[in-house]
Task: inverse folding
């Protein structure tokens, strides 16, 4: 009888609906996302000479834009605008190919909006102006909340809990935040928060960042993720547009102005179960881009691309499997501690601790060590490539050596402060 009673109790417990899950689901369905994807990404140097930063390949088969788009779709947010401007052709083409499956008749969409000078004879003046010039879309669709995202960061995030926290705090603005080393914080919006996560101060790219209380080596910085109540957002955008002294930027103007008069909260990005800080990378420099890609070849990388519960969606090219050529003459094609995408052929060459995107060929006798090789690259015979990024469609001649003599490399290629060599087609 006691056992039966326990079973009944357990059954009753399992029948209780999870309020938080239902709450988050309702909120995400009434949220519209606006992804700012018009940035030039000048710190990536020649990698963004022909493409917008969000269109830059990442992780062997993806584009950077795939990460915020996947986060939205996986979170249940199915009304998404992608706002473009700088050299957007590659980005637009990718989204059309890989993200056209949402059903408009069900109120779902991913729409690309190019810069159109909607509010005057100027292009986007800043992040706030980018949203302001598309304010009519907010009015037309009338979402309960507007989620504003940067289109150029690498991370996996369920936006539902953040929107739920925004609602529970009765916030006007909620900012996604993460801790970074203090010496890196000068490139971010740095904030101070109280014990309730209310933002007390916000400094955009300060020369001397304020550290986190109790940790002098870290600062709390903005992830470029904002949740706004619809009407509040419309109101502050109109006020900012009318201010001739404003640079029309969320970090420089809108958020610091709102802190004094409104309810602005931070949402620390961490694992819901362990409370440990979650993975997030700003791949805004060549060195950061290189590191983030090569982290993926680790045995247990922080960013799990094999997570079935949170897949990263992208345009899937129809390519044959990767091939490693082996024959009786001792020509052995092999790769160790590497990721190799479809369509690649490694013919009698050795690839180590590297990432090869789709349709890369590496010919006989070549060695590729700690390199990021973007799609459709052809590497000739007896080449040695070390700590390098080879851009899309490069043709590397036979006997080329890259990454061993930086003084020699610098005569033709880009060499970073950390000794990474960037090679693009126009340099060859």
Result:
């Amino acid at each position: 009888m006691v056992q039966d009673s326990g079973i009944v109790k357990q059954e009753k417990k399992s029948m209780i609906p999870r309020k938080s899950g239902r709450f988050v689901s309702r909120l995400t369905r009434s949220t519209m996302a606006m992804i700012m994807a018009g940035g030039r990404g000048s710190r990536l140097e020649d990698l963004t000479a022909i493409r917008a930063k969000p269109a830059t390949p990442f992780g062997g088969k993806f584009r950077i834009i795939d990460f915020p788009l996947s986060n939205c779709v996986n979170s249940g947010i199915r009304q998404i605008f992608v706002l473009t401007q700088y050299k957007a052709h590659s980005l637009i083409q990718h989204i059309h190919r890989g993200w056209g499956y949402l059903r408009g008749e069900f109120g779902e969409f991913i729409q690309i909006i190019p810069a159109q000078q909607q509010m005057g004879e100027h292009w986007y003046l800043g992040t706030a102006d980018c949203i302001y010039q598309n304010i009519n879309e907010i009015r037309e669709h009338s979402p309960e909340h507007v989620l504003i995202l940067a289109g150029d960061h690498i991370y996996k995030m369920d936006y539902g809990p953040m929107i739920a926290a925004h609602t529970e705090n009765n916030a006007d603005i909620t900012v996604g935040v993460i801790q970074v080393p203090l010496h890196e914080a000068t490139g971010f919006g740095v904030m101070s928060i109280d014990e309730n996560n209310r933002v007390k101060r916000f400094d955009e790219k300060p020369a001397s960042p304020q550290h986190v209380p109790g940790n002098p080596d870290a600062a709390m910085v903005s992830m470029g993720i904002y949740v706004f109540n619809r009407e509040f957002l419309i109101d502050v955008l109109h006020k900012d547009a009318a201010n001739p002294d404003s640079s029309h930027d969320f970090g420089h103007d809108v958020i610091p102005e709102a802190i004094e008069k409104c309810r602005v909260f931070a949402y620390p990005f961490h694992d819901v179960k362990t409370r440990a800080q979650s993975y997030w990378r700003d791949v805004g420099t060549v060195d950061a881009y290189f590191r983030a890609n090569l982290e993926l070849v680790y045995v247990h990388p922080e960013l799990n691309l094999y997570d079935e519960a949170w897949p990263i969606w992208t345009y899937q090219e129809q390519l044959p499997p990767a091939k490693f050529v082996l024959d009786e003459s001792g020509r052995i094609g092999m790769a160790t501690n590497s990721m190799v995408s479809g369509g690649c052929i490694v013919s009698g060459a050795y690839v180590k601790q590297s990432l090869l995107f789709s349709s890369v060929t590496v010919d006989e006798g070549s060695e590729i060590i700690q390199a990021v090789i973007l799609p459709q690259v052809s590497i000739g015979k007896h080449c040695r490539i070390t700590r390098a990024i080879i851009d899309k469609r490069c043709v590397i001649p036979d006997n080329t050596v890259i990454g061993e003599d930086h003084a020699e490399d610098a005569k033709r290629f880009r060499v970073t402060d950390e000794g990474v060599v960037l090679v693009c087609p126009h340099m060859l």
Summary: The longest helix spans residues 2-15. Confidence is low (pLDDT under 50) at residues 1-22. The radius of gyration is 24 Å. Residues 12-295 form a domain with the Spore Coat Polysaccharide Biosynthesis Protein SpsA; Chain A fold (CATH 3.90.550.10).
